[in-house]
Write a structure and sequence with these properties.
Layout: H1 6-11, H2 34-37, E1 49-53, E2 65-71, E3 83-87, E4 92-93, E5 96-102, E6 108-116, E7 124-129, E8 140-143, E9 147-151, E10 156-160, E11 167-172, E12 175-188, E13 201-216, E14 220-231, E15 234-246, E16 251-259, E17 268-279, E18 288-292, E19 298-302, H3 315-323, H4 335-338, E20 349-356, E21 359-365, E22 373-378, E23 384-389, E24 392-398, E25 407-412, E26 418-426, H5 447-457, E27 472-482, H6 488-499, E28 504-505, H7 508-513, H8 528-550, E29 566-567, E30 572-573, H9 589-600, H10 603-616, E31 631-632, E32 644-645, H11 646-649, H12 655-661, H13 664-672, H14 707-721, H15 726-740, E33 753-754, E34 761-762, H16 780-787, H17 794-807, H18 811-818, H19 832-842, H20 845-857, E35 871-873, E36 882-884, H21 889-906
Antiparallel strand pairs: 1-7, 1-28, 2-6, 3-4, 3-7, 5-6, 8-9, 9-10, 10-11, 11-12, 12-13, 12-17, 13-14, 14-15, 15-16, 16-27, 17-26, 18-19, 18-23, 20-21, 20-25, 21-22, 23-24, 24-27, 25-26, 29-30, 31-32, 33-34, 35-36
Helix pairs in contact: 8-21, 9-10, 9-21, 14-15, 14-16, 15-17, 17-19, 19-20, 19-21, 20-21
Pfam family, one: PcRGLX_1st
Protein name: Tat pathway signal sequence domain protein
Keywords: Signal
């Protein structure tokens, strides 16, 4: 077995010459500072990296294009390094590259790379340092005071700087494929479920407030549009919509985010969508509608059908219509059909609505004012539709269409001169969103009563705290401006690209060698002991993946999260029992899932973690109001619990997706969290446990030095990595150094306070102890593993290593070094990874062996003989057949993280 040394694990093969303390950079810089550039240290470079499609093979279609991130060892490249993307045969593929993360010495840590769907596709590529190939038709951006136009060489998209329409037009050559792209929403003053005699409705459309060009090509252009939905004098539901266009592509990828800023008692959102007008050309029998169903299924219809009639127009005519091609001149048809065309109904309106995760239906009608008729149905539609004619049309779709139900793809007016194509992210057919709190408080009017409630349902209730004001949702869409009606095979390929956008990824071995994300290692089954742990990790992960589908953890506000704990009596997760319901990132579930992907490179693992990040980064945290930057503790509703905490909005859970995909929306969320420490001025997290009045002093705030600071510091670390606000670096370093200067550092008791201005902690000079089991299980261990490799501070290192060594040590050892016992601490299995870290830092084999004993003992987790397999439970004991295992999410997340890090750090002692 290869011995994993301290250098290999903690430096992770980083190149030499980069140990200086925190050479900072300005947010706008894309190259090393003058000081860094003048250093004599030479950059080491790096051999080519092979990147492959995440799902394997070469995809038939891309959703416009793809953008992916690749990490590099410290000291390998300068931020202005160019990269080339080539196939195994040596064909250069046009690629656009830019840095997204920096090492402290100014060398590039992460790069992002974009390639177009128009480029030749292979199963894998080599990313090589060198000049990039230029696209045949580069993206160009032109702008004036009123408009911005992005031209991909195939389509031109014009954006308005103000007004109702985000997109003025999408042209393909001289043909307008779509125009007047806008957002639509509806509101009603009462819920749909209570049969009110009168329900008042309002309909809103987008009002553009700001348009920003974030990238200008040559391969990829990004336009960000911000605004609110407006009706008369009311403007609400703020939105951020990004449009991605790629060289030579006829597609537009769209990332839509809205924030709920209404009153849950009277603002019920009845519909939320994106709509385009689509000019219709040709006769109704040459206009076509397509819907992608489940699997490879496609529904193909004409607005005015000429098949199945009593009189036959002729085989050539029928075949052309079925294929979506222009039919022959009607004078060549059987005239018994031609002379009676006006009597064949033209169905101008279509709807495919997915109101549950397990069922969709398609309906159509001739026009408004007439009845809908049922066409067909199925289980899980892939979320893509088309409307147009042989001379061009619009394909439009929504990712995670059935997972994010209730959704709908709607076409109206296709029998007129202008059709409307709408992606409903919340279908009006479903009834309005009801975001009210789920119970009346049950008399919990005072803090003592609320604490009593916590003792029975684990729900931390407080009046007016269960508000959705400020929560968000992000949805991904794609629009294709097609030159003709696509074949059924092409529709199916577009639907697949829409449902699972192809993504290139570098392998676990390269990512690990680059030294990113702390202590982890690729899967290693080189002996029986390792194999057993790997089996446990794989079985546990598979159980949660399967549970999502078996338990139907889907829906607009829910998809991406998992449940917190299980009720074996009901054979059900405790979805209705207070704090045992939705997990909301409790005990770092997100971290476990991302590390599982990093070490396996598995596509299912990536998509699972990606969905969780989309959810927890939007729904489980606030993006507006005084609680902006705070997350909500686990509960029956994602925003329902009264504990609003930075440990839940934790940037450490989101940075993986950002660096692996360069996703700008995730970048926005990460940047929001830089100032999350300001929330301690408006909300006292410990308000129910003290009689002291809340009178916050910005120079002496009650910010916890472990759980709170760890979450804040992960936001600052990410901002520093991204070359952002200088205050992030300042607060990160000040916090680490001043905590380490306390007599007992992260375990110090007494009145330890935080200065909002500079991030420094101040505390008593006499040693005492105040430590809880949750202190390090919200990312603090992972933060410090990374941070200590980025700074050169002996005291911070020594104090953190001491903390890691002492947590699971004996009371006698704790008293000897800190003056008192640390008490009966919980989650000892989780902290085995802290012991392992100390073992590596101190080169202590006895500590390494102790770490494995702690993991195998399984205190507050899973002991060595724990059964990770699941048993099948069938009806009538349950509503649907399910697999049942003795697993809870707290224990799973922490066992996963502990096992992964023990394997990486002290695997040679297993």
């Amino acid at each position: 077995m290869v011995h994993i040394s301290r250098r290999n694990v903690l430096a992770s093969a980083a190149a030499a010459g980069a140990t200086a303390l925190l050479a900072s950079r300005g947010a706008e810089a894309a190259a090393p500072s003058a000081e860094q550039a003048s250093r004599p240290t030479e950059l080491a470079g790096h051999e080519p990296v092979t990147v492959r499609w995440l799902e394997g093979g070469a995809p038939a279609e891309l959703a416009a294009g793809t953008t992916f991130g690749v990490p590099w060892p410290r000291g390998a490249f300068a931020p202005d390094q160019e990269f080339s993307l080539v196939t195994d045969s040596g064909t250069a593929i046009p690629v656009q590259s830019w840095p997204t993360g920096w090492w402290p010495d100014g060398s590039v840590k992460w790069t992002a790379h974009a390639t177009s769907g128009a480029a030749p596709r292979a199963e894998s590529y080599r990313l090589v340092a060198g000049e990039a190939a230029a696209p045949d038709s580069p993206v160009t951006v032109t702008s004036n005071s009123r408009r911005i136009t992005v031209d991909t060489g195939v389509i031109a998209v014009t954006f308005r700087r103000g007004g109702e329409h985000l997109v003025e037009s999408i042209r393909r050559g001289d043909t307008v494929i779509a125009e007047k792209g806008r957002l639509v929403a509806s509101r009603q003053d009462r819920p749909s479920t209570e049969q009110a005699e009168v329900i008042r409705s309002q309909f809103f459309t987008s009002a553009v407030e700001e348009v920003t060009v974030e990238q200008e090509g040559p391969v990829r252009a990004v336009v960000k549009v911000e605004g609110r939905h407006r009706k008369d004098r009311r403007a609400w539901l703020p939105f951020t919509v990004r449009f991605y266009l790629y060289a030579g592509s006829d597609a537009v990828r769209v990332v839509h985010t809205f924030v709920y800023d209404g009153d849950a008692e009277r603002d019920f959102v009845g519909g939320l969508g994106v709509r385009f007008d689509v000019p219709m050309r040709g006769e109704p029998h040459d206009r076509h509608v397509r819907f992608a169903g489940q699997g490879e299924g496609v529904l193909s219809e004409a607005v005015r059908g000429i098949t199945g009639l009593r009189r036959d127009p002729g085989a050539a005519v029928r075949q052309a219509q079925v294929a979506g091609q222009a039919t022959p001149d009607p004078t060549t048809w059987d005239q018994r059909v031609t002379t009676r065309l006006q009597y064949i109904p033209a169905f101008g309106d279509y709807s495919l609505h997915q109101l549950t995760a397990n069922g969709f239906e398609v309906h159509k009608r001739t026009k408004a004012g007439h009845s809908w008729i049922r066409v067909d149905g199925g289980q899980r539609a892939r979320g893509l539709a088309y409307v147009g004619s042989p001379s061009g049309g619009l394909a439009f779709g929504m990712r995670n269409f059935w997972q994010l139900h209730p959704t709908e793809l709607e076409i109206t007016g296709a029998a007129t001169d202008t059709a409307q194509a709408t992606v409903w992210m919340w279908s009006p057919r479903a009834g309005a969103m009801d975001l009210r709190f789920y119970h009346d408080g049950m008399g919990q009017d005072t803090y003592p009563e609320q604490l009593e409630g916590l003792e029975i349902t684990y729900e931390d209730y407080e009046p007016e705290f269960g508000t959705p004001y400020g929560v968000a949702r992000t949805t991904e869409l794609t629009f294709w401006a097609l030159e003709s009606t696509p074949s059924a095979e092409r529709v199916s390929a577009l639907a697949d690209a829409n449902a699972t956008p192809p993504l290139l990824a570098s392998p676990p071995e390269h990512n690990h060698a680059a030294g990113v994300f702390g202590a982890w290692s690729p899967v290693d089954r080189s002996n029986a002991a390792r194999d057993e742990v790997e089996n446990n990790l794989a079985l546990m992960h598979r159980y949660y993946v399967d549970s999502v589908d078996q338990r139907h953890w889907y829906g607009f506000w829910d998809y991406g999260d998992v449940m917190h704990d299980y009720d074996r009596d009901r054979h059900a997760w405790r979805y209705d029992v207070g704090g045992y319901a939705w997990d909301n990132s409790e005990l770092s579930t997100d971290l476990w899932l991302w590390y599982h992907y990093l070490r396996t490179g598995d596509a299912t693992a990536f998509r699972f973690a990606e969905a969780m990040t989309r959810h927890t980064g939007e729904v489980d945290m606030y993006h507006l109001g005084e609680w902006k930057g705070l997350g909500t503790r686990h509960g029956v509703q994602h925003w329902g619990d009264s504990a609003k905490q930075v440990r839940i909005s934790n940037a450490g859970y989101k940075r993986f997706l950002y660096f692996l995909t360069a996703d700008e929306r995730v970048g926005d969320v990460l940047h929001e969290l830089v100032d999350a420490d300001r929330t301690f001025l408006v909300l006292n997290p410990g308000r129910k446990l003290t009689d002291e009045p809340f009178d916050p002093d910005p120079t002496a705030l009650g910010v916890g030095k472990s759980t709170d600071w760890g979450a804040l510091a992960l936001a600052w670390l990410t901002e520093w990595e991204r070359n952002g606000d200088e205050i992030a670096r300042t607060k990160l370093i000040n916090g680490a150094t001043t905590i380490a200067a306390l007599p007992n550092s992260w375990a110090q008791g007494g009145n330890v306070t935080y200065n909002l201005a500079d991030g420094r902690f101040t505390g008593p000079s006499e040693p005492s102890i105040s430590i809880g089991s949750l202190s390090s299980v919200f990312g603090l261990i992972e933060l410090m593993t990374e941070l200590l490799e980025l700074i050169d501070d002996e005291q911070v290192t020594a104090q953190w290593v001491r903390f890691c060594r002492l947590y699971n040590s004996t009371a006698e050892e704790q008293r000897l070094e800190t003056g008192s016992s640390w008490g009966s601490l919980n989650l000892r299995q989780a902290y085995s990874r802290a012991t392992a870290y100390a073992a590596v830092r101190l080169d202590d084999a006895a500590l390494a062996e102790r770490a494995w004993r702690e993991l195998r003992t399984g205190h507050a987790g899973y002991p060595e003989d724990h059964d990770f397999t699941a048993e099948r439970v069938e009806g009538p004991a349950v509503l649907n057949p399910v697999d049942e295992a003795r697993l809870g999410t707290n224990a799973s997340a922490q066992y996963g993280l502990a096992a992964i890090q023990c394997l990486a750090l002290v695997g040679d002692h297993i």
